[in-house]
Every structure is written in structure tokens, then in C-alpha cells.
Amino acid sequence: MIDKFKYHEVDFLIPVHRFNINFSYITQSEMSFVREYLLRLIHLSPMKPQEIANYFGFSKIELQEAVNELLDKGELLYLGDGRLDLSKLSRQYFKKPGDSPKINTILPRSEKLKFELIGFSCVLNEINNSDNRLGVKIKIDDSVKAFSQKQVSTNFQRNFNQHVADEIIFSNGWDQKLGALPPKIYSMDSVIQIGQFNMRLPTDF
């Protein structure tokens, strides 16, 4: 067995840009018990108000409150024969009969992230740029630096799901209270460079 020993240590200095990334994402929200099951029931077949009251055991006042709320939201409508049916809006909540309805909500968010300019991976550790003289600088083409915002925008969208899983964005973890499913990227609003640094990468020889 050959013993390994450190002959020398060299610090490579890798260029890093810091960005303010503004984007919008889609999350699916859950509903209250009554609202969900009332919509699920009518999704199976249009029903008259009294039939709904009998099914849930609603009093007249409870029925009015439950139905009027969904009428006001534009999720129910009356047919010509007096039955209640789902609106075009609420039909979009279902993928197939028997499913739980899910509401897609689009929300804005802003994240400040750092990306190295070699492979455009997100940098999580602190940047050490106190003395850039004591290290080997990795040269990056000026064209790469100039268009780093576009590259970061592309990579951020491509790796969005993994960034969520790794808690790079939503750093406290995806709270299930915010949505039944993890978020999905909806749009990139802006990617603005707000700083540049060197990441010190010690390497043993």
C-alpha cells in the first residue's frame, strides 16, 4: 500500500456571478372539506339543491351558505331545470371523475443565487474573495461573462424541480400548507446580475 501525502496545495479561483432571479411558479391548493366534496359530488352528476341538502344533511341555511359561496366564486351554475352543475372554471379542477379538485395558483417569487461560470452550477457555500492574488485564476471567455444572465435563466428553468428538492429555493423546504404538490416553474420574469466574486477551491497535489 502506497501512503499518500500532500505535496502542495493550490487554490483555484473560479469566477462566480450573483443574481437576483424573479420568477413565477404554479402551486396547487387544497380546498375546505365542504367545498371539495360538494364539487366532487356535482362533478359526478348535476344535482338539485334539495338533493345536495339530503346528501350532506344540511339545514336550509347551511345549504344556502355552501351553495352561494360556490356560486359567488363562479364554480357552480344553475341549469334550466333547476339543477346545479359545475362551471367551466371548476371543471378545470378535475383531471378525471373521482379525483380531488385542485386549484392552480400562480405566485411570484424572488431568489438571490450564485452561479459559477464554468458549468453554471449553483454555488451554496460562502464566497471567499478576500485575497485573489494567492491562487490560480480560471480564465472565462468574455462572451460567457457577458451572457451569463441568459445561461443562468436557462439552467434555472431546466433544474427548477431539483432546486426545490435540494432546498436551494424555498430554503426551508416546500411547506405542504402552500400546496398539495411541489411547485412548478411558470415563467422567468427577470435575471439580473448583482455581483461578481471568485470562489476559492483548494486542491491538494
Task: Note down, in words, how this protein is organized.
With 205 residues, the protein is an alpha+beta fold. Helix content is 29%, strand content 32%. The protein is built from seven helices and seven strands, in the order βαααββαβββαααβ. It has helices spanning 33-44, 49-56, 60-72, 88-91, 142-146, 148-158, 160-165; strands at 9-29, 76-78, 84-86, 103-116, 122-123, 136-137, 184-204. Strands 1, 4, 5, 6 and 7 form a five-stranded mixed beta sheet that branches. Strand 4 (103-116) and strand 5 form a beta hairpin. Helix 2 (49-56) crosses helix 3 (60-72). The longest helix is centred in the N-terminal third of the chain and has 13 residues, at 60-72. The radius of gyration is 27 Å and the shape is rod-shaped. It starts with 8 loop residues before the first strand and ends with a strand.
Give a short overview.
By secondary structure, this protein is α+β, with helices and mostly antiparallel strands.
* Main beta sheet strand tally, sense and closure: 5 strands, mixed
Beta-strand portion reads: 25-35%
Which spans of ≥5 residues are poorly predicted at pLDDT below 50?
A: none
Query: What is the radius of gyration?
Result: 27 Å
Order of helices and strands: EHHHEEHEEEHHHE
Number of helices: 7
Helical percent range? 25-40%
Gross morphology is: rod-shaped
Average pLDDT, all residues: 84
- Would you count the extended β strands for me? 7
Separation, N- and C-terminal Cα atoms: 19 Å
Q: Give the structural class.
A: alpha+beta
